[in-house]
Structures
1.
Amino acid sequence: MMDRLNPEQRAAVTLPSGHALVLAGAGSGKTSVLTSRMAWLIQTGQVSPHGLAAVTFTNKAAREMLTRLTSLLPIDTRGMWVGTFHGLCNRLLRMHYRDAGLVQTFQILDTADQLASIKRLVKANNIDDEKFPPKEIQKFINACKEDGQRPGDLDAHDPHRRRLIELYQLYQDQCEREGVVDFGELLLRAYELLSRNAPIREHYQRRFKHILVDEFQDTNVLQYRWLRLLAGEQASLFAVGDDDQSIYAFRGANVGNMADFERDYARGNVIRLEQNYRSCGHILESANALIENNSGRLGKNLWTDSGEGELVRISELASDALEAQWIVDEVRALIAEGKPRREIAILYRSNAQSRVIEHRLFSQGLPYKVYGGHRFFERQEIKHVLAYLRLMDNADDDTAFLRVVNFPTRGIGARSVEQLADLARERGTSLLRAIPYLQGRAATSLMRFATLIQDMASQAQILSLPELIEHVVHHSTLLAHYQADREGAERLENLQELVNAATVFVGEEGFAELPAGRVPEAVPGESEQAMQNPEQAAASVLAPMSPLGSFLTHASLEAGDNQAQAGQDAIQLMTIHAAKGLEFDAVFITGLEEGLFPHENSLFDPGGIEEERRLMYVAITRARQRLYITLAQSRMLHGQTRYAMRSRFLEELPEQHIKWLSARYTSSPMQSEASSGAFRRGQSWESKDKSYSAQPYGGRSHTSVLEVNGQTFRVGQGVHHNRFGEGTIINLTGQGEDAQALIQFREVGSKTLALAIAKLDTV
Ligand code: ATP
Ligand code: MG
């Protein structure tokens, strides 16, 4: 185990108990060190597997960590606390649901469910959704929770904020009534449970001797507080991270946690690793040079002894369709050279980019797998089935009720549902439970729905989980609905996939023989622990879950990667965010255009640009041997054709480490499309390399042009506006009357102007 480590890594792995921080760049072995330290602590008898907790960033990473651990040491990892913050908090709350003030069957709202729930609240309380857009309320609530604040902790400086705080409280009451928690609530509840309940806190503080955290730079304030509480005075906290890879500030991550941790805990114990074992020289130097452009870094210098390797290849295509085509051609060449498909990753900034690439891969018959992003469990048809299952498991779940009460349509109108909602409010109960009290015409059809749910729920006592899901798909008439739909084939496949996922799930969890609704006797590991700690057993009730309940939790917390195909050798597609911590032999980074990457929301905020640059740093450092970067001169996004400038990040890559593969397009987009077609045909990348040898990047020669009312506009062009003054065109979209320009004005910031109307002079 130690042989493979370099001296600094070994020092980190074998540090004596106490807090420590490993601060090191990408690919320097942080995750390897963390896993080796777990194995070393166990092997040297300093701690039992039970006395360790490890926090990772994704469920996938947690699974990999356990796999690596068992390959180093033959131990039983069941009952070990290795998972994401959300996963571990969920576990804590399931164990101690009573003390946490939750119902045993509490279910988890994902982001979309949360928004639906807020919309419902806004409507029920006659709130003006122009003044209080549900998304704004959602952002407000989540930010408060990430800061550990309840409505009562907040000050209302002005009427608008006072109303938001009231809405937060109303939303909280609604969740309580319906027995659901959102993602932020999982963390906050778990934090409050530990901070308020001394016996439980002391129990866990006694249990965990070592707590290890990967990707520490992306923890938020509440997560850090939770860790400190869990660690108490005795446990050793071991955190690894890289400030240059902090990419979740937009979701409340606080890179300042690293400095705080160093000050409060690690003090002298900071280890730096500088050798990169992942990427070849040109790739690593490109990443180093790029990130140099950020300010306020903690500062690291990465080197490699694995040689220069190949130059970074950059290719500019006329359109997103051609970009996808070019990538797929390269992918085929790589596969022909013998590269396994799973070692090829295609990364993008925004989920919307994947469709074109997927389409191309699909039409070429290349197997691929999309991670994260549009998660399997978020697909419409899957959410419908899950809503039936949730309603069977928890009759108070009004969000689930509203999703399926009239889907597939069964003649239950909006009026009937409103009537039911009024009645439920009067009686202080949920929608499903209020049905029997309903009078009049609406009653019959709603009663039929209640019976349907009841019948399904009774099947849960007989059928296994996969059988139950099949039953629900059939009896809810979802099956018939999608069979009748001309475009339902893919949805039917996904429904089958859900049954497969349930089969894998019950197998892995040891639930195969159990009816879906039956609660098993005891959870191994946890209950035995409670026996040894009568104090804790008294303080809380253990809550093992039924296969159905656990599966619903799994569906909310997992990315829902297509498990049934996990073993298949497929090309890997994902957003850059989802690629964090991973590595591949060959990586494509796509869409290097201003407004896309860096993302348009970040363009006018220096902090935003730096976060985008860290994202690009993460993307580059995923590649081992070969890195491709692509960009398109025009792109269909959200139903509009957009023309954009080359990303500023391309300029930040040193010339000696890159090579431009494509001919430079100096003509109009139409012509360049044709020329790129010629360039593409029948050439392997080898011959392309020769014919299009290193093109120096000649600054911004702009080809993205729009003509409106005889006036020609170009991306990058200077303009003058009567009111706003001087500015530069950043982005052009649409055509004719719909043509718009995103302009960065020197004095007033960015504005989007309709070109047919705005009086712009070109300068
Ligand atoms: P990231 O910042 O991207 O999360 P990391 O710092 O966690 O990266 P690892 O994923 O642990 O880095 O390691 C990167 C690669 O280097 C892995 O393939 C790992 O097996 C390999 N590696 C780490 N240390 C060594 C070593 N001492 N000798 C050889 N290979 C190593
Ligand atoms: Mg890592």
Note: Residues 547 and 688 are 55 Å apart (CA to CA).
2.
Amino acid sequence: MIEVAVFVVVLLAFIGVGIYLSTLRTRAPAPPPGETTGSASPTVEAPAPESQKPETAAPELEPAEAPARPVAPTGLGARIRALFAGGKASPETWAGLEEALVRADVGPTAAAAVVGRVREHYRPPMDPADVVADEVAGLFAEDPAWEAPSGPDGRPGVVMIVGVNGTGKTTTIGKIAARLRGEGRSVGMAASDTFRAAAGEQLGVWAERTGATLVAQERGADPGAVAFDAVKAAEARNLDVLFVDTAGRLHTRTPLMEELKKVRRVLEKAAGRPPDQVLLVLDATTGQNGIQQARSFTEAVDVTGVVLTKLDGTARGGIVLAVREELGIPVALVGTGEGVGDLAPFDATAFARALIA
Ligand code: GDP
């Protein structure tokens, strides 16, 4: 009898402790999502103090904030179709289209031009994204295809290549040289970026690889002197075309634009005429800053065409529309990778389809 009583008391004690423990568990703070309750140590389990929240909160907030961030160029087509949902276009639709284009680096002038043209031509049930792409391509319709220049009386054509460091100037010269050499033309390269340590060597590698004639001097030499010698060497050797690589950043007190103007003047003096072309290399990933670059280089050395590099990445290069509309500069070529063959003539239709995709 006594044993039964002891057993009942022990049993009741166990039940009591169990109920107490389960109350404790419901009162404990909920673990952060994704964390297990089992074996983690108290420091890991503890909710983050307020001061640490931004670190952990940022990635979670991203999807929610996405609509407020600049439109990803790759989503432009879907965004345009959403704006035109229902087929009818309201004033909000046109304003939304203009904003979406500006956010894709197209710039306000080109965006307004495209919207104006789409307003004229869009009729439901057309696909609005197709109409926008057609009108974007239309902005380049008058531009002739790029060709390497030739000088008067069979003299070498002279092309000055400008752009900020890292945009792809040297690589572009190498790619163009390879293409022209493949067509049987002779090419010269002037290493007038005498400021960047590796620039001359890099150009030398391209010259060797493509069978081009390189004119270079030691690092720190006068870029104008290299340019002058290169024109004279190209003429003496009857080369078809000379490409003059230039600095994108200086480590001296002379402003870059002043140095480039000087190179241009020297080329003019050496050849007896201004450079036949001045190509600005623009990196597609630069975004809206590209228009400032284009403006500065154009004011200094009168840019005649743009080479849009790094189109192989996610950037769609909407900036060239801004450059075309605001400065009247056409796109000559596009770079689509680091390889020697990754260069293509600018195809406005393909460009517009990729931008609006
Ligand atoms: P520079 O300073 O303007 O002469 O630029 P470089 O010619 O040295 O190029 C800078 C970097 O960009 C190098 O790593 C190149 O291989 C790379 N680059 C150049 N053009 C392209 C391109 O069209 N696509 C990609 N992905 N990389 C490129």
Note: Strands lie at 157-162, 187-191, 213-215, 241-245, 277-283, 305-309, 331-335, 343-345.
